[in-house]
Design brief:
α7 (about 170-180) packs across α10. Helix content is about 45%, strand content about 15%. It is α/β, with parallel strands linked by helices. The protein has 16 helices and twelve strands. The strands form two sheets. Strands 2-1-3-4-5-6 form a six-stranded parallel beta sheet, with helices on both faces. It has two domains: about 1-160 and about 370-390, Glycogen Phosphorylase B (Rossmann fold), CATH 3.40.50.2000; about 170-365, Rossmann fold. It catalyses: a lipid X + a UDP-2-N,3-O-bis[(3R)-3-hydroxyacyl]-alpha-D-glucosamine = a lipid A disaccharide + UDP + H(+).
């Protein structure tokens, strides 16, 4: 079996690497070709060009690179045709991947699978229209997504979320982390203001003020801030003056495995988290860390997103567990006094903390914890779509 894969972001590279590992379990002779990052290359694929050329976000950033992106699209289509692939798997990055598939469909009938369903349940439901006629099958990370895809005429399988396959730190790792950083028995507030410069700049002040208000009630708190490498310097700047003697986890210059292990230990050591909205809520749920979600944006984005949103919560734990146990403060509601009050509430033992623990358990179960690894489940879908049913 020959599989052509395309990923354009580190998260897609991670999904692609696990998928390739699963495909090799099904068929050790499977061959790979395509575009990907270090994790996919580690599984035996030589990328057609550096994946980071596709990691462009925002209109202002995309426009100067548009000519180059169209050239890479054409090169990718040509490479697919020449590869003799039995199936093409595009992984997220819809702006690039769907353009490739649209042009490919004019030249070839090779089966196509898109990995990661668009969040049409949240906003812009007509995004599925871009996929009709060029995508033969969709693989979803969230259990409630297949009906949305199938309602648009796109066959879809839920294959599990990669968070359930992530290893967790042991209690001994958490104890060692506390000892190394002098946290002792203090309540630890894990603070996650985002991984992009705009997010950190916008949220750090709000988060800092929220922590000051919490510290007025709980002066014993300590604060731990895992920083993404691209924004680590900014995190140091923005957290000056925060209470709780912030411990900044800076992955720059560290061995990647050591940096990941330190972050896992921090999650295991945390008593509660204050986090920007996003998939980090699932990482926190995997570690049973009670959380408060907060996010703000500019005035225009607030109005636009409020008009388009079709759901009453954006926190994935709330959505997957079908509860509303995780408090969230978004846009106009992103106020430090309310955030601090919510943090104090979930920091102490009580019904709010217990409800979050129960919701976290439900979430992990529904995302596939205890089932086959998501990479293997995805591999079985890809093999079936490619016509290799005997390997499923």
């Amino acid at each position: 079996m020959k599989v052509y894969l395309i990923a354009g972001e580190p998260s897609g590279d991670k999904l692609g690497g696990a998928l390739m590992e699963g495909l090799k379990q099904l068929n050790p002779n499977v061959r790979f070709q395509g575009v990907g990052g270090p994790l996919m290359e580690a599984q035996g694929m030589t990328s057609l060009f550096p994946m980071d050329e596709l990691s462009v976000m925002g209109l202002a950033e995309v426009l100067p690179k548009l000519r180059g992106l169209f050239k890479r699209r054409d090169e990718t289509v040509e490479d697919i045709i020449g590869s003799g692939a039995d199936v093409v798997v595009t992984i997220d990055s819809p702006d690039f991947c769907l353009r490739v598939l649209r042009k490919l469909r004019e030249l070839s009938a090779v089966p196509t699978v898109h990995y990661v369903a668009p969040s049409v349940w949240a906003w812009r439901p007509k995004r599925t229209e871009r996929m009709i006629g060029i995508v033969d099958h969709v693989m979803a990370l969230l259990p409630f997504e297949p009906p949305y895809m199938e309602g648009a005429g796109l066959p879809c399988d839920f294959v599990g979320h990669p968070v359930v396959a992530e290893p967790l730190a042991e209690a001994s790792d958490a104890s060692a982390f506390r000892a190394i950083h002098g946290l002792n028995d203090a309540p630890v507030i894990l603070t996650l203001p985002g991984s992009r410069r705009g997010e950190v700049s916008r949220l750090a002040g709000i988060f800092g003020e929220s922590l000051h208000k919490l510290a007025a009630q709980r002066p014993d708190i300590r604060v731990v801030v895992p920083a993404a490498a691209p924004v680590a310097g900014l995190v140091y700047e923005q957290t000056r003056g925060w209470p709780g003697q912030p411990v900044i986890l800076d992955p720059r210059g560290m061995n990647p495995d050591e940096a990941i292990a330190e972050k896992r230990a921090a999650f295991a050591a945390a008593d509660v988290a204050l986090a920007a909205s996003g998939t980090v809520s699932l990482e926190l749920a995997a570690n049973t860390v009670p959380m408060v979600i907060a996010y703000d944006m500019n005035w225009f984005s607030r109005k636009l997103i409020r008009a388009m949103l079709q759901i009453d919560t954006v926190t994935l734990v709330n959505l997957v567990s079908e509860t509303r146990t995780v408090p969230e403060f978004l846009g106009d509601a992103c106020k430090p006094v309310d955030i601090a009050r919510a943090l104090e509430q979930v920091l102490k033992p009580g019904p709010e903390r217990s409800a979050q623990a129960a919701a976290a358990e439900i979430t992990m179960e529904r995302l596939g914890r205890g089932d086959e690894p998501p990479g293997l489940r995805a591999a079985k879908v890809v093999a079936r779509v490619a016509g290799f049913e005997d390997q499923v």
